[in-house]
Design brief:
125 residues, alpha/beta, Transcription Regulator spoIIAA, five-stranded mixed β-sheet, 30% strand, transmembrane helix, Anti-sigma factor antagonist, STAS_dom, STAS_dom_sf
Length: 125
């Protein structure tokens, strides 16, 4: 598992490559926490190269979301495979996140403050 980041249009894009499970999830969580501690607030989690994600991996997405929300940031999910999208749908997580087909789509508009204000419930509207 590998995680790297880049900045695009005010978003910190964290690209995760490999399996996201009990062994690798803590590394992802710590990498994002370090970025938050460095002042980054608005994230796109690029899952395009994730080959496997278990319930612990989903848990780390929730943990990251909580931490980002505590710092009044934003989180979008990008490049999710159809198999991964199905997992997000089955768990109800697809209703709580902005999910984009590509990182380019996710970073097209600049971050808005308070986009996680209604998390874990979708904004009504």
């Amino acid at each position: 598992m590998m995680a790297s980041y880049d900045v695009a249009n005010g978003w910190t894009v964290v690209e995760v490559d490999g399996e996201v499970d009990a062994h690798t999830s803590p590394m992802i969580r710590e990498a994002v926490i370090k970025l938050i501690d460095e002042g980054y607030r608005h994230f796109v989690l690029d899952l395009g190269f994730v080959t496997f994600m278990d319930s612990v991996g989903l848990g780390v997405v929730v943990a990251i979301t909580k931490r980002v929300r505590e710092h009044e940031g934003s989180l979008r999910i990008a490049s999710v495979s159809s198999r991964m999208l199905r997992i997000f749908e089955l768990t109800g997580m697809s209703e709580s996140y902005e999910i984009y087909n590509t990182t380019e789509e996710a970073t097209r508009s600049a971050p808005a403050l308070g986009s996680l204000a209604h998390w874990p419930h979708p904004a009504s509207g």
